[in-house]
Design a protein that fits this description.
The protein has 322 residues and is of the alpha+beta class. Helix content is 29%, strand content 27%. The strands form 5 sheets. Strands 16-15-14-17-18 form a 5-stranded antiparallel β-sheet, with helices on both faces. It has a 4-stranded parallel β-sheet with strand order 2-1-6-7, with helices on one face. The N and C termini lie close together (8 Å).
Length: 322
Amino acid sequence: MILIVTNKFDPHADAVIAHLKRRGEIFLRFNTEDFPSKIKISLFKDNSSYKCHLDLPVGAFDVSKVSACWYRRPDPPQISEINSKIANNFAQKESLTFLSYLWNSLNCFWINHPQLTKPAENKIKQLNIASNLGLKIPHSLITNDPEKALQFYKACDGNVVNKVISRGEIKNEEQTFFLYTNKIDKIDLQSINHVRLAPTFFQEYIQKKVEIRITIVGKKIFSVEIHSQSSDKTKIDWRHYDFDKVPHFPHELPKEIREKCLALLEKFNLNFGTIDMVLTPKNEYVFLELNPNGQWLWLEHLTGLPISEAIANLLSENNIQK
């Protein structure tokens, strides 16, 4: 059986599930925000046996039968029945801890195991490994020293961007704010002392011919060139999205770059990942970062690349009946 761990509003999961249905695969979608309020899990263990049952609105399932798991985009548990904030936080923590124990108990194929995803998000380690593999990387600095930040800015002749170290997302009770990559200008230097308040990620700005988004599924590589320089809105960060002005086309990577991208994922023991690169005006490929659980559905819609089918195929190939 295939297990898909995600949330209710995940079109990426919907796309892959459509392919699994066409293949006649047995699968289970676990929307984690429904646990524990709407989903029951019972784990039994004694000296001679181990059993784990998952009780969903669509039926009961033996989790030990799972042979392939796609850990897609789980949301935190929602426990609206508990009004006390302290008690609610405790129940959430217990729920999340139990789920992590559950994932670690599964002996199956993963895209990707959550314990491997977090280390792979380490941007310092990504740059180290990419460089060791022979990929070109930008000059980079993470610091809370304003003087070092200013020295780096001058060394790069003012061609510097500021990125986040963690995920570029800030939430409060009402809104979610996204932090994008921004180019540093002379006006920003007036606030350079604020760097002392939190570690700040500076990187040499790489001139772009196009940007390359690479999606790797197992050993299959899907590469798309994003013509971000055709719109002022997307020149620094294509995630501002301007689909009317920014063409997306399939891109053929050189064999050497393909092999190094596969090697990068192997170093992190990942079966899936997305890689962002820049193709410079001199046709040099420059590695920016790896996302072990990156988005890709818009690339499929714009280019027709069969990424969702490839994920479904990879899960199916590893769905060995127990």
